[in-house]
Amino acid sequence: MFKKEKPLGTFLVMATQSHIECMGELGLDYVIIDTEHGSYDTENMINLIRGAERAGITPFVRVANTDHKEIQRCLD
Known about the structure:
alpha/beta, three-stranded parallel β-sheet, 3 helices, 3 strands, 18% strand, globular
């Protein structure tokens, strides 16, 4: 993630793996997968994380709430 002095990234509310791959080509350092405002199920979230890692982007997940099960789902 620390390719530059100031990391560059964005929030994802509605995205696909293709979007993340394009962001990697543009030089973004990180993406925040926003499950609070986006409607990502577990499979979509996993695919976005894998796509980010393949594109050389650090993925972060913003959890929908502080419920133990929701946090565990994102960590798994």
